[in-house]
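dumping this here before i forget
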Amino acid sequence: MRILVFYPYIPYPVDRGTYQRTFHLLRALARDHEVDLLALSEGGERLEQKAVFETFCRRVEFVRFEHPAWPRLFPDRLLNPLPTTILHWRLPHIAEALERFLTGQRYDLVHVCDIVMAQYFLERHTALSLAMDRSRVDLDFQIAQHRTMAQGLKSTLLDNENIWKLACFEKRVARRVAVEVVCGPDDETFIRRHISREVPVLVVANGVDLEYFRPDVEPKARAAEPTVLFCGAMDYSPNVDALRWFFGGIHDSLRRHVPELRVLIVGKSPVAEVRAYTARPGVTVTGGVPDVRPYYQQSWLQIVPLRIGGGTRLKIPESMAIGTPVVSTTIGAQGLDLVHGENILLADTPEAFASETARALEDASLRQRLDTAGRKTVHERLGWPRLGRQLAGYYERTFGGAAG
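structure:
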């Protein structure tokens, strides 16, 4: 098959969760099919990575862009039927670059990442079969974020306005695409209830690079003190909210049970609120690091106190693969089909989260059981090659030979 892949960013180095999904699925598609890549580069970022993709893609082109300014409330925003989160990615020169890239080419399928890229195929290029891979279902994410994070009156009104428009836009895109590829069954359930009962949906879970996240790749002893890790991009609002919830109602209680507790917050671009947690005893905020594996290896547990859903958390398969047990909310682990007490600990209230974390920190045999079961789970189900073959095989069966 010949496939055009159209991405809103250049997913290399793989230093964000979504980049891991998009990079590994792209490479998997290229192993089984002939793939061309067109990707956007905000402000010229990562243009030097072109050679990485040229090793496995037939054609590669990067398009520089800058996001337009957020529109004024009136008349630019209120009188436009498109949600502002979609308009933020709508630029004429991107459409022109896509037109040039398509000229003279025939594709069996176009694979786009997320709904912001699907918009370029609604009015034009409608004869092309379109698959949309979703790192999250945008409507689900925005509804959850609105419900969870405190807002003033103006923000509440603007959120509701964008959510209403996005709901309409989601339905429009669902009528156009040939399949929506999602991270977990929770995403599929949301689509069926709130967007479309007819659009084909394929669940391809997020996974892990099993060769990179091996327990023995860089042997390092666990920290002497009980240490928990939170890993992720620290300018991403669900992660910021997760830490706010943890430090607002869990951390102090946990320290009463485990006075020597250390907390490692590891991830790029920490906002001021996250940096401020270093004032608390035993808390370290590293910012971006060249290699997260040593932090996984020294930690006794990883905590995932997420309250905002949509997609799945790559930090959980990584942690399980390298042998660091996980305590998570149900939302944080959604889509991974994990079992509380078997390969993960799940807790959804501050009291329960503190209790489960303390229990695991105080019980080495429990941590060992979670470690063993977690590594078995990821090796059986969540390696990227296996997941990539699932996607590539579906495309072959469904779209093979479409270009003629």
